Amino acid sequence: MQRHHTRAATILSTLFMGLGQIYNRQFIKGFIFLIVEALSLTYFIQKLGRAFWGIVTLGTTSQHFEKVKGIAKLVKGDHSIFILIQSLITIIFFLLFLLAWYMNIRDARKTGAARDAGHTPGTFKQSIRYILDYKFAQTFLILPSVGILLFTVMPIIFMVMLAFTNYSAPNHMPPAKLVDWVGFETFRSLLVLKSWSQTFYGVLTWTIIWAILSTVTTYLGGMLVAMLVSQQGIRFKGVWRAILIVPYAIPQMISLLLMRNLFNGQFGPINQYLKVFGLDGLPWLTDPFWAKVTVIVVNMWVGIPVSMLLIMGVLTTIPRDMYEAAEVDGANSYQKFRIITLPMVLFSTAPTLIAQFAGNINNFNAIFLLTAGNPPNGDYQYAGSTDLLVTWLYKLTLDQNKYNMASAVGIIIFLIVASFSLYNYRRTKSFQEEDMIQ
Amino acid sequence: MKMKKLMVLTAAASMALSVTACGSNNNNGNNGGSNSAATNAPSESTAPAGNAGTDNTGAETAQITPEDGATLMVWESKEERAFTDAIAKEFTEKYNVPVKIEELSPTEQVTKLSQDGPSSLGADVILIPHDNLGRAASAQLLLPNDVFEQETIKNNTEAAITGASYDGLLYGYPRAVETYALFYNKSLVTEAPKTFDDVLAFGKTFTDKSKNRYGIMWEVGNMYFDYPFIASNGGYLFGDNGTNKDDIGINTDGAIQGLSEFKKLKEVLPINSGDINPDIKRGLFNSGDVAMDITGPWELAGYKAALGDNLGLTPLPTVGGKTAISLAGFKIFAVNAYTQYPNAAKLYAEFASSKEAQLMLNELVGSIPTNLEALEDPQIKDDPYVSAFAEQAKNSQPMPSIPEMGNVWSPVNAALPEIWDKGVDPKTAMDKAAQQIKDLNNGTSK
Hints:
The structure holds two protein chains of two kinds.
Chain A: H1 4-15, H2 19-23, H3 27-57, E1 64-68, E2 71-75, H4 80-116, H5 124-134, H6 136-162, H7 185-191, H8 194-230, H9 237-249, H10 252-262, H11 269-276, H12 288-317, H13 320-328, H14 333-361, H15 364-370, H16 389-399, H17 403-427, H18 429-432
Antiparallel strand pairs in A: 1-2
Helix pairs in contact in A: 1-4, 3-4, 6-17, 8-12, 8-14, 9-12, 10-15, 12-14, 14-17, 16-17
Chain B: H1 5-24, H2 34-39, E1 72-76, H3 81-95, E2 99-103, H4 106-116, E3 125-129, H5 133-138, E4 142-143, H6 149-155, H7 158-164, E5 165-166, E6 169-170, E7 173-178, E8 181-185, H8 196-206, E9 214-217, H9 223-231, H10 239-242, E10 244-248, H11 253-264, H12 278-286, E11 290-295, H13 300-307, E12 311-314, E13 326-336, H14 342-351, H15 355-364, H16 372-376, H17 378-381, H18 384-394, E14 396-398, H19 409-422, H20 426-442
Parallel strand pairs in B: 1-2, 9-11, 13-14
Antiparallel strand pairs in B: 3-13, 4-13, 5-6, 7-13, 8-11, 8-12
Helix pairs in contact in B: 9-11, 19-20
């Protein structure tokens, strides 16, 4: 009879939540568990079957009109997307319930084992005391965790699921039409079907080129400006800094919309000035190539101040004596830059640099406000020559209601950003040699 | 030992909460069982109600009365707010139904309705361009115009009824037609051009790119304004009066012929399509640097103020000898299928699109009526500007309202700049666009 209590408590708790605790004479806790199970059972008996039905079928009856005395009446059917969300919520709750059940069994088992070992099980008061004393942090993280689960994780799961349906205009828009699971069909269309894949690969290529160029140009530009301003012997440093920070102070939206007019190929001031000097001007926003150049140049204007601020901060942390030592050894300014400044700056800002890169992949504002993806491209589906994946995604959802395609694109953007970031983070020196700078 | 006990408790508590929260939600039409779903239909009250005290609802509206305690929400465009406020006030006075107005651009209303309608958060009456009708009707977001069907058909132009119908069923309550015509500056153009060859000839004498003076300007990258070049010689968007999605007519011989006329005009407007936008065009026309402008009634008030008596307006010049056919858009009211008060909503839509309402709209905002009697009214007939639009409207085709219309804009608006900016052969560009539309119509969403 050594293990008698352990086994009995475990079996009882498995049968019905709380029975094991009651058997262990922890009555209050046991009753709380009992009530939880009772309530949960009534909830799941009503909901769970429908949840599984819903997530498998996504609804079976579609909405229609019925004529009553010549007047049309709407007869509601299943709204596939609502069903999907509700089923998802129910199933998540069910998983939480299973987790609770597992912990209830474990608790009963442990208390049983304690009794077998000759201890008296703790009273309810003691249990509370124990939690408050030793498990305070975990306890109060429960609510935020549930919040994150419902408001962050659940929507993400939902979006991912959409990519595997045919939820799109015009033929599969609830409530009039039902939505079905189509497996990898959407991804197949996106990657293989010519009309979509041409757009996808074109936009993807430009997105990556854009992310690299825009990150590199703003970073190097910022570094150049920062070094110029913080050089010894430069006067009115405060003034220079103030002037250079102005673009950062203007809301991006305003400056970009302004730029859009500045760069107008016929009526914009830039080309008008060029004309004064006898130059023809450029088709800044109407030619695919020059439009790409323009967005990168404008992005430099917006982005350099940020890098400048960052790098100026880093420059002040470089110890002066390193430069003095280099001078004693006869290094010229380029050598000083290459051996001291660049590595120190890169080292401290690498994580930010990667974050900027990932951010530029999704730099919606720069493109959408400046060119709105234009100039139009006859070979693309719902995208223009300067569209990034993220602006294309915007057009797919808000203008065209191709939600399934948009989710698929969204998943791919996520994979790209996540893998770049992970790969780079792991290779960055700041993470490998955390002790390089004290 | 008693680890995670509170975690269990909290999890349990949240579950208990959700039981109560979701329990009450149980009957909200998600039951799948067709019986309970049917009882949840919001339009039960559609049955002729309130036959007791038919006060003074007037002969034509005697068929239905607003539900007790009905209040309406209406989405309206910001630009036409003056009219909306006035008509809502009159409606409230007559039927004692409060009307709440929310500003929302008509082009965004169907998208918003498709999100908010099924959750019963949408407006009861919406105002949409008719080319969005197919998308809304095929998604079953709208109640058909059944109570006032006969009257609406009897009172409005045939084109307006075509525009307000989808799949053989009348949904809309048309209230205005919108198309474009040729504005010109009388101090620069002595005689209104009759053909686009006239326009070309005049432009050659007037256009001077270095001084930013142009004989004519319009949004050359926008299919809406370029449609005369496609349609006047026999091109079309969709066959069978814009209902056959498999018959695409943007690359027929007629369309290509018209588009080569279009391409010729680059000589007098040597600018890339992307550099022309309404703001720039408006500024140049007002300052006399652009002599002619193809645009719609929405510019009328501003142009009148800037040019005064020098403003002329005439139907579009002929394309290749054929009468120019413009694209017409109808602004139509429609009733949300999920409205709580279908009767009140239908009454409002009818009331706000009546003859009197259309005349008021013309007076306050400057629109062109679709109501036949309103079109004959001196207020319209004697106004040279409105009558010019009304004249052009006679030679216009309603935009196709089938849902596939959404697939047309983007490819054609990409092809037109290729023709204009890069001088691509119209046939090549339009063939590609037509192929894309076909792909989109039959593509992945099938």
